[in-house]
From TrEMBL:
EC number in record: 1.1.1.85
InterPro entries given in the database record: IsoCit/isopropylmalate_DH_CS, IsoPropMal-DH-like_dom, Isopropylmalate_DH
Residue numbers binding Mg(2+): D225, D249, D253
Keywords: Amino-acid biosynthesis, Branched-chain amino acid biosynthesis, Cytoplasm, Leucine biosynthesis, Magnesium, Manganese, Metal-binding, NAD, Oxidoreductase
A Pfam cross-reference name: Iso_dh
PANTHER family: 3-ISOPROPYLMALATE DEHYDROGENASE
Pathway the protein takes part in: Amino-acid biosynthesis; L-leucine biosynthesis; L-leucine from 3-methyl-2-oxobutanoate: step 3/4
Family membership noted in the UniProt record: Belongs to the isocitrate and isopropylmalate dehydrogenases family. LeuB type 1 subfamily.
Protein residues bound to substrate: R97, R107, R135, D225
Cofactor: Mn(2+); Mg(2+)
Residues flagged as site, Important for catalysis: Y142, K192
UniProt name for this protein: 3-isopropylmalate dehydrogenase
Subcellular location as annotated: Cytoplasm
C-alpha cells in the first residue's frame, strides 16, 4: 500500500492552534507506529479569502478530491462578518462537503468518565455514554425546492421543502448499518412518519435496506420528537442513530451537550467509496474558530485530535490505533489534565493548548 495521503486545512481562529497539536500526533504515528502519512497543508475559510479572494481555491478543492482524507480545523471570525454571502468563510466548508458529496455526517457523543460531572444530566445517566448519530448531510429541507420567500394573497410566505429520494435514504442507511456492525450492532432510525410523507418513505427504505442486507443488525424506529426525549432520559439505550438532515442537526447538537464541552467533540463526513475503496472523507471538530480565545493558547485540541482518531478508524482502517489515541485522551483526562474549558468549580491550573497536546503524546508513549 502506498503512504496514505492527508490534506490538512487548519483554517481560521483556533483552527491552526488545535491543528498544531494534531500534527504532533500524526508525527508520532509516523515515528513510533511506522504509520507515516503524506501530509499537505492548504488554506480554507477567511485565510483563503485573504490570499485568493475566495474561501476555497479551485486547486485546494481539486486536492481535496484526490487525497485519502481531509482534516479541517475551523473557519470564520468577526473579521469576515461583513463579507458578501458568496465569499463568506463558511462557503469554503460548504463547497467541500457538497463537491465531495459527503452525505453521511457522523457525530459521536461519548462521555469520558473524568468529565461526566460536566454534563447537565446526572453522572449515572451519561457516564460511559458512547453513541453515534448519523445525519444525512446533502439533502432534505436545507436543499429541497421550492424554497424562498414569496408573496401570496397579500402576505409573505417563507417556504422550504423536505425532499428525499430512495437512493438518498438508501445510501445513508447503509452507512449507518455498516457502522453498527463495527459497534454494538444496533440502529435506531428517527423520522416523523406520523406526520410527514418523507418520513414514511424514510421508514420504508430503511426497513427494506435492513431486510435485504443487514438483517444481523438490530433495527428500531422512533419518531424524532420521542427520540429527543429518550436522548435526554436514557441516552445509553442507543448505539447508532440514523436520521435526516434537519432532525440530525438538532439531535446531534442535543446529544453533544450530554457530554460537556464543545472542545471535546469530533465529527466525520463520509461520501461514496473512491477507487481505492476508502470513502471520500472530511474530518473536523464540531466547534468553530472561537475568536474569543484565539491566539491565547486556551483552545482545547481534543476535538480535533479525536477527529484524527476517527480518520484512523474510518479512512485508514486503523481501528486499534484509533482506540489507542482515544485511550490516551481518556488517560490524560483521568489524570486531571484540563484546558480552561474543562475547568470545574474546584479550580486548579489549566494546561495550554500545546501542553494538552504534549500530555497526549506522553500518554501515547506510555501505551507502547
Ligand atoms: P465556536 O464553536 O467557535 O465557539 C463557541 C464557544 O465555545 C466559545 O466561547 C469558544 O471559546 C468555545 N470553544 C469552541 N471551541 C473550543 C475549544 N476547542 N476549546 C475551548 N473552547 C472552545 O462558535 P461561535 O462562537 O458561534 O462561532 C465563532 C466563529 O466560528 C464564527 O465565525 C462561526 O461562523 C464559525 N464557526 C465555524 C464552524 C466550522 O468551522 N465548522 C462551526 C461553528 C462556527
Ligand atoms: Mg447545528
Amino acid at each position: 500500500m502506498s503512504t496514505p495521503s492527508l490534506l490538512i486545512l487548519p483554517g481560521d481562529g483556533i483552527g491552526p492552534e488545535v491543528m498544531d497539536e494534531v500534527t504532533k500526533v500524526i508525527d508520532w504515528y509516523g515515528a513510533k507506529r511506522d504509520l507515516p502519512f503524506d501530509v499537505s497543508t492548504d488554506l480554507v475559510g477567511g485565510c483563503a479569502y485573504d490570499k485568493h479572494g475566495t474561501p476555497l481555491h479551485d486547486d485546494t478543492m481539486a486536492k481535496a478530491q484526490e487525497v485519502d482524507a481531509v482534516l479541517l480545523g475551523a473557519v470564520g471570525g468577526p473579521k469576515y462578518d461583513d463579507l458578501d454571502f458568496s465569499v463568506k468563510p463558511e462557503r469554503g466548508l460548504l463547497r467541500l462537503r457538497k463537491e465531495m458529496d459527503l452525505f453521511a455526517n457522523l457525530r459521536p457523543a461519548q462521555c469520558f468518565d473524568a468529565l461526566a460531572d460536566f454534563s447537565s444530566l446526572k453522572r449515572e445517566v451519561v457516564a460511559g455514554l458512547d453513541i453515534m448519530i448519523v445525519r444525512e448531510l446533502t439533502s432534505g429541507i436545507y436543499f429541497g425546492e421550492p424554497r424562498g420567500i414569496f408573496e401570496e394573497n397579500g402576505e409573505r410566505v417563507g417556504i422550504n421543502t423536505q425532499r428525499y429520494t430512495t437512493s438518498e435514504i438508501d445510501r445513508v442507511a447503509r452507512a449507518a448499518f455498516e457502522l453498527a456492525r463495527r459497534r454494538s450492532g444496533k440502529v435506531c432510525s428517527m423520522e416523523k412518519a406520523n406526520v410527514m410523507e418523507s418520513g414514511i418513505l424514510w421508514r420504508e427504505v430503511v426497513t427494506k435496506v435492513h431486510a435485504e442486507s443487514y438483517a444481523d443488525v438490530e433495527l428500531s424506529h422512533m419518531y424524532a420528537d420521542a427520540g429527543a426525549m429518550q436522548l435526554c432520559r436514557n441516552p445509553k439505550q442507543f448505539d447508532v442513530i440514523v436520521t435526516d438532515n434537519l432532525f440530525g442537526d438538532i439531535l446531534s447538537d442535543a446529544a453533544a451537550m450530554l457530554t460537556g464541552s464543545l472542545g471535546m467533540l469530533p465529527s466525520a463526513s463520509l461520501g461514496a467509496p473512491m477507487a481505492n475503496g476508502r470513502p471520500k472523507a472530511l474530518y473536523e471538530p464540531v466547534h468553530g474558530s472561537a475568536p474569543d480565545i484565539a491566539g491565547q493558547g486556551k483552545a482545547n485540541p481534543i476535538a480535533c485530535i479525536l477527529s484524527f482518531a476517527m480518520a484512523l478508524r474510518y479512512s485508514f482502517d486503523q481501528g486499534d490505533e484509533a482506540t489507542r489515541l482515544e485511550s490516551a485522551v481518556e488517560a490524560v483526562l483521568a489524570g486531571g489534565a484540563r484546558t480552561p474549558d474543562l475547568m470545574g468549580p474546584e479550580g486548579g491550573t489549566p494546561l495550554t493548548t500545546a501542553q494538552m497536546g504534549d500530555a497526549i503524546i506522553k500518554a501515547l508513549d506510555a501505551s507502547l
